[in-house]
Design goal:
homodimer; 11 helices
């Protein structure tokens, strides 16, 4: 029987970074990764296959990242695990003995129970290259496309698909696109950009039926609107893939994901879980939160990989701060931590700060974009709890910088005191930095109260 | 006699942000700014006047930023101050009584004692709009331009001037361009880009003579090379403008700048100094350091403005972390804190970490740039002491994020643990983030030792 030190189930970024980090920390460990896919997709790159890359394979993570580190890659399914005996059984019948097992089994698309959802040319968004290749072929010929679901994936799909000249509509149940991640004013900026790109937006609307014979021909909304469609993208979220975890008796948390501690250890001492299949807890409330992001998955993987064989207490995940970024027809948007809508929901005593600047200086330089920033601070102590940004392409790193401030438990004063670097072509002016100005405004706002 | 609460001497970013911050913190204070210039220039934008903006006025900071906040703007010189009587005398003869005085008198170009340096069409880089307008006119017709000095300003001038089709050379005394701010490998990347742009580089060379009759005609180097020149830019650094401070008896520090404490107070309790004229102390060694950056000036101004009439101990400058960014022919470069060359000079026990990634993912996306990052950590405790980056336009904000880590006294482990957000079009892949990967490498490197 094959014997390894670490057996990692899954092939995505969580699996890869657990394996690579384990190799960095434990030079001589025997590490194996088991996954069925012919190749692995960069998950956040999926929408960009359809309007920019025009190829599924261009969005792959090369297997060499594992192979060149001496990690064994096995293309198969893990069908069962004997936790007591530390033995995994593959679909091929092969058995592998392990010391530590890591589940990085990811997520599965949530398919809503809409009548007609099983017709041809209706595609849930999966990470499977075969499915994506089929989807790409259909998208190339599609004249009328309806995207159901207005979160990140739905918005990015709509923004990309419209570039091919298709007639694209997006339908969202909530009053705004991106509503779970941003406050209204930022959602509205994204909606504006998507409209400018030619996408038809139907918010506050439910899909009641998908029509057609064998293939989809139209999508019917709850107000009677019928949208012609020869392709439908189901961007209706995902749920943790815990099939194997359940089968082998690991504890599942209240959110439906695998329960893990700060080191990503499951209810069994020799089994870890990382990424979309592992439960996350809110950085602030410690409640379970359904955040599924490759960037969180890799952060967890770096912690799990370091702690796999010996506890490095300095490496822990102390609650998940969701940090998101997206790009809609030339507008970059980012959010980190708490948004105002959620602050209200959980009855948080908060103060807002906002700022507006330009991402180059002087603002008349070519390709300069306006940058809007909003921070949410606690009223007591004025800790930075959340930040949102809309601007040019540097907004994706500015939101990371504000995410750092949240994770470092910085106050608005501490943030306002920070020294920064600036450059005419790369950043806003030193007089109105995007990273500090909203915090300065929050300080003023609390003094007014 | 006119009476004000705060009198600010100077017109640049340090003066403006002191005034604006004072207004935010002290709503009813009477604030006046005195400066002679017809308008104020964005200092870091100066090189971009010459190859991108083609206009001096486009690089101005509008006076409205003061006026709309109810700040009195007086276009004059402050010739003398009676510190005991709290009275300033302007060149017009007007006297102004103040409660607090702020010196934001900036810097003056250092003109090297080269024979012939007084000839026509030789321009030190000043912030005076009249001088810049004269310089712009000459640059439009110049065929052969020599830039003396290979720091940020020199490199940016060369990169801009060559865009107009002029034959541009740059001469630097040290072995590399940008050598005071970057380690060799980053300097070499900048040199490569500048060469690609068509600039001729002469490093390790001293200018011994500037030739010509009335006007400059050539520049002679110490190896006998003679460079034809109908225009010379003197980018040979600057020194604090402390003329007024000396005249009125304020204490001058060993570096030649006005001595200040953590609140930017001078040796007189009612006088503050901010920006290039105020002494800076190294964040690490606390030694005086000649850093002149608008971003540091504004950070100081935000602290001085908040503390002007009442001490807010939460707002201090606890040492200056120089954070720089520049852009050379498509390559953005940034540095924060310690570089390796200086770490060696001061006999620091350090560990290096490096990483290489791409600023989009997958890396085949249009306009993706490679990103190189280097961090310097202390060996004991592995605190992040310095960072350097070269990459695409987001590098300017990534270096700010690493500058945050330095100012928050973060260790490599803490940095490696941080959660980030990623997006295909905005950031590197979550598997190889520019902000964390060099820290992870530093952790590995110390374990190897």
């Amino acid at each position: 029987m094959k014997e390894v030190d670490a057996l990692i189930v899954g092939g995505g970024p969580a699996a890869i970074i657990t394996a690579v980090t384990a190799r960095q920390n434990y030079k001589d460990a025997k590490i194996a990764v088991v996954r069925p896919e012919k190749y692995v997709i960069i998950p956040c790159g999926i929408p960009y296959i359809f309007g920019t890359l025009h190829s599924v394979e261009k969005d792959k993570i090369p297997d060499e990242v594992l192979i060149k580190k001496g990690i064994d890659l096995i293309k198969d399914y893990v069908d069962d695990v004997d936790l007591e005996g530390h033995v995994a059984t593959l679909r091929s019948g092969e058995k592998i003995k392990y010391k530590k097992l890591v589940l990085a089994t990811g997520s599965k698309p949530s398919v809503p129970p809409i009548p007609g959802v099983d017709k041809k040319n209706i595609f849930p968004v999966t990470k499977n290259p075969d499915n994506l290749e089929a989807m790409l072929e259909v998208s190339k010929k599609a004249k009328d496309i309806v995207v159901i679901g207005g979160g990140f994936i739905g918005v990015e799909f709509a923004d990309e698909l419209v570039k091919n000249g298709s007639n694209v509509s997006i339908v969202e149940l909530l009053p705004h696109l991106l509503q779970l991640s941003f406050d209204d004013e930022f959602c509205e900026m994204a909606e504006e950009r998507l409209k400018d790109a030619g996408v038809k937006i139907f918010t506050g609307r439910k899909v009641v039926e998908i029509q057609g014979d064998d293939s989809v021909s139209a999508v019917k909304l709850d107000d009677g609107t019928v949208l012609k469609a020869d392709m439908v993208v189901l961007a209706t979220g995902a749920k943790p893939n815990v099939d194997l975890a359940k089968k082998i008796g690991l504890k599942i948390g209240v959110s439906g994901a695998i329960e893990v501690d700060e080191y990503l250890k499951t209810s069994h001492p020799d089994v870890f879980a990382v990424g979309d299949c592992a439960e996350k807890r809110c950085f602030f409330t410690r409640d379970p939160r359904p955040v599924m992001l490759a960037s969180i998955a890799t952060a967890e993987a770096r912690v799990a990989g370091a702690n796999l064989f010996e506890l490095k207490v300095v490496r822990q995940i102390k609650g998940t701060v969701g940090i998101f970024a997206t790009y809609v027809n030339g507008l970059a948007l980012g959010a980190a931590g708490m948004i105002e809508r959620r602050a209200k929901e959980i009855n948080l005593d908060y103060v807002i700060g906002t700022s507006q600047t330009v991402d180059k200086h002087p603002g008349c330089l070519p390709n300069a974009s306006k940058v809007f920033t909003k921070v949410i601070t606690s009223k007591q102590g004025q800790y930075i709890l959340g930040a949102q940004i809309a601007g040019g392409t540097t907004a994706g790193e500015i939101i990371n910088l504000l995410g750092f401030a949240i994770q470092n438990n910085m106050t608005a004063c501490e943030l306002a005191n920070l020294q920064i670097g600036t450059h005419p072509l790369l950043t806003p002016a030193p007089t109105v930095p995007a990273s500090l100005s909203a915090a300065l405004n929050a300080i003023q706002n609390i003094e007014k109260e």
